[in-house]
Amino acid sequence: MNASIKSARRIFEVLEYFEDVKRPVSLKEVATKCDYPTSSAAALLKSMAVLGYLFYDSYNRTYMPTMRIAQMGRWLDAGLFGDSAFLALVDFVHKELDELVSISTQSDLHAQYIHCLQTSKRLRFEVKPGDVRPLAISGIGRTMLSGHTDVEIARLMRRINAVCPPEERIELNALMKIINGIRRDGYMFSKHIIVQDAGVIAMLLPQRDFGRDLVLGVGGPVSRLEERHEEILACMREGIARLLK
C-alpha cells in the first residue's frame, strides 16, 4: 500500500475509533485496538494534536478530539441531505417501526450508507455509515439505479462488469427486469443478497435542493420484514408524504 494512503487511512481509523468509544483514549489503547506499532501510533497522535485535531491531556496521558473535528462536520447534514427533512424522515420511520432505518446514496459503483439508526431488538444486522454495497447487486443499489435513465444504467453496467470477476458479472437485460419492477412498484424488497437471512425494503426518495439520489431503507431479518411487509411500506410512504412532499 502507498505510504501516503496508509497514513491517511490511519488518521480516519483513529477518528472512527473515537466515534465508537466516545471517550478519551491512551496511546497504548490506540496502538492495540488499531494494531499499529507503538512508535507509529505515537507519531500519528502527536501530529494530530499539533495540527489541532486532538487534545492531549498530559495528566491522564490521553487524547480526545477537539471541537475542530465537530465543527468540520456541521455542514454535512445540509451537504449530504439537502435539508433536515431527510433526517426527520429517518427519525419518524425508526420511531414507528424500531427497525434498522438508513439513508444511502451512490458512491461511484457502490451504494453507500450515510445515515443509520439501529433497532433496539436483539436480532439485528450491523450496518454503519460509510459501509458500501455493490450498486448492481444490493437492494439499495438497485433501488438507486431505478432513478437513472436506461442509458445511464447501461453505461454503469459496462464499468461494473469491466472491473468485477467474470462469475460476478450481471447481464443487463436481467438487471433491467428488476429495475423496471422497482419503477413499477415504487420499492424493492431484497432478501438474502448480501447477508444470508438479512433483507431490506428500499425506496428511492424525491430529489431535494442538492439533487442527489437518496434511498430510504428498512432492514432486518427477512422473516421479520416479511411479517411486517405492509406495515413497513405504509410507514415509509406516510413518512415520505408527510415530510418530503
CATH topology of the largest domain: Beta-Lactamase
CATH H-level homologous superfamily name of the largest domain: GAF domain
Biggest sheet overview: 6 strands, antiparallel
| Name given to the CATH architecture of the largest domain | 2-Layer Sandwich
Instruction: Report helical residue fraction.
Output: 40-55%
Pattern of helices and strands: HEHHEEHHHEEEHHHEEEHH
Number of helices: 11
**Structural class based on helices, strands and sheet pairing:** alpha+beta
Are there runs of 5+ residues with pLDDT below 50, and where? none
Total domain modules: 2
Give the tally of β-strands: 9
The CATH C-level class name of the largest domain? Alpha Beta
Biggest sheet strand order reads 6-5-4-9-8-7
Quaternary organisation: single chain
Overall morphology = globular
General description of the model:
Strand 7 and strand 8 form a beta hairpin. The radius of gyration is 21 Å and the shape is globular. The chain folds into two domains: 3-72, Orthogonal Bundle (Arc Repressor Mutant, subunit A), CATH 1.10.10.10; 76-243, Beta-Lactamase (2-Layer Sandwich), CATH 3.30.450.40. 49% of the residues lie in helices and 20% in strands. It is an alpha+beta fold and 245 residues long. 27% of the residues are buried. It has a six-stranded antiparallel β-sheet with strand order 6-5-4-9-8-7, with helices on both faces. It is built from eleven helices and nine strands.
